[in-house]
Amino acid sequence: MTQARAGNFEFDYVIIGGGSSGCVAAGQLSADPQARVLLLELGDRAEQHPETLRADGYKDAFINDALMFERFSVPQPGCRGRPLFMGSGRGMGGSGSINAMVYLRGSAADFRAWDEPTWSWSAVEPAFAAIERTLDVHRRPPTEFTEAAITAAEHAGFHRQHDLNDGDFLGGLGYEWMNYRDDERRNAYVGFIKPHLDRPNLVVLTGAAVQRLVFDERRRLTGVEFIHEGARHTARVRREAVLCAGALESPKLLMLSGVGPRAQLVAHGVPPVFDLPGVGANFQDHPNVTLFHLARRDVDCFYPQVYGFHRANRASELPPDQADTCYVVYPARSSFREAFMRMLPALMVPPALYHRTRLPRIVRAGVSLAFKPGFVRSIVRRLYGLVVILGKPRSRGSVRLASARASDHPIVDPAYFADPEDMDTMIAGVERARRIADADPLKDYGNRELLPGRWTSSRAATAAFIRSMAMTTYHYAGTCAMGRGADAVVDAQLRVRGVTGLRVADASIMPVVPVSALNAPSMMIGHRVADFLREAAAP
Questions:
Q1: Cα dihedral sign for 75, 312, 473, 453?
Q2: What distance in Å separates the CA atoms of residue 83 and residue 85, rounded to the nearest whole number?
Q3: Which of 227, 311, 472, 514 is most solvent-facing, going by the fewest CB within 10 Å?
Q4: Protein fold of 1-48+105-137+179-277+480-539
Q5: Torsions phi, psi of 121, nearest 5?
Q6: Fold of domain 140-178+287-392+417-469
Q7: 328-377, pLDDT tens digit by residue?
Q8: In this structure, are residues 45 and 1 in contact, taking their beta carbons and an 8 Å threshold?
Q9: Do strands 138-139 and 177-178 pair parallel, antiparallel, or not at all (unpaired)?
Q10: Nearest to 363 by CA among 85, 76, 67
């Protein structure tokens, strides 16, 4: 990758974070040869971890510690007091390099809820279309099992959805789009940065740990301070910087730079630049639980390629065309071993010991050994799950500073099920998933419920199962929310309130989280911020 000389750290644009939105923004901005662009990423080059570039490599990427920020939430009262694993991707491509390549735009109702005309479905659709032309998204071919699952869902009140990206998928279930081509993962790095690494005006620095944003006395952003290869640098910014570090790291960097709730800044000894109470508030995530079933024969697909969306809670005040739950048909053979290797240490090892001992590695090695016997692998081939995801949570959590050190993870509180309506919706979602499993097509394939088990049929037992087994879907959003009110952090052009020369462009700007996965919307946001910046720079 292009490296900047020590005495030449002056750029028109500095993009902080080489994930899904940052790669798109940097790729688009550097298409102008007159614009000098710096992209800073804390993690490694993608080429150091070839599994991030393969379509079938996501299983290996998910358990590669070099590709994952390993964080934990504060104990969750709504989940029996458990601290929950809140990991996210690092390295070029970010979470888009380790996920299952789900490419879902969301629904028109999702964007209408943002209450900004410039972010309506019709306004964002061109950016989605441009991204899809670059990534060349595909759907996986049907299999006997996936067809049985879709037909079972049709018996349970869904309709077969032929295009989950048409903006209206309420009640639909079908084959989701995935960002791959042949054996290649087509993520934001592969599509928007890798082909352009020879651009003389694009500088990409990996292993770059951003410490803070630098403002002058007029609250104008003038530079970005970071550590690279042991040396401290300040990249001078001629036009604007863009935070694309994600919904957990972007608010942390704002607060470390003096932009955020004043009381919190003062408590950690951070000199306030601008009191912006909404920074770190409004945190939203998609908790999920999985109902596992054992088939009578091998499940013949290798990717979670069937998705559905429905309205489980009819008592909710959501608009009538808004789905509130997502349903994923999960073949265990796709990643069950790797999921256990990642999640079991997080369940068994207390957060205080997780980074200080070898216990996570010991647990992971035990999981690997447990999956070696042939009979275990044969069971996994017959195992499938119906994942129920709370798509429109009413609960709102927070991201706060743990200290004034950039190397420390923030304090993350997703506040799962703090609003009782969220539990009502999840219970209804589990009941709907059971109706899918009980329909004849899956009965014929085999539908013996292993988890939670048929003894958890009462409402109270289902709630207890959800509280015990809920986990993140890694869809963090909302902590630098866009809007017009006092709590808004950015405006409709993604400019940070109270300062100049700084924008935020990642899932943190979403005022309300979409019901579906966030990778495609994050890329769309990166695409649009490049448009906004070009418009602002035009004569």
A1: positive
A2: 7
A3: 227
A4: FAD/NAD(P)-binding domain (3.50.50)
A5: -55, -45
A6: Cholesterol Oxidase; domain 2 (3.30.410)
A7: 999 999 999 999 999 999 989 999 889 889 999 999 999 999 999 999 99
A8: yes
A9: antiparallel
A10: 85
